[in-house]
Description:
By secondary structure, the chain is mainly alpha-helical. 61% of the residues lie in helices and 0% in strands.
Amino acid sequence: QNVVGLFAIENSSREGIVNQLRYIDEHKLGEAFLTDFVTTVMAVQPDDVRRAAQTQLDPTRMTIVVVGDRKVIASHLLPFQKTVP
């Protein structure tokens, strides 16, 4: 829903529409991209995202960045740490 909302905001001005049309042209996405975008995004299900993540993301090459009070969050981060600094 966030992606759909941002899409609506990005296309709420002439400049936004021009930028979208430029993007479509640069990436050769075809005429239906704008009209089908919301339907296509809303059709994505959690299992689709999980499947894509499992096939496309390599956890050994990822970095986790956490911001917060170390005293409060440190114990929650132990499973993700290779070494404690």
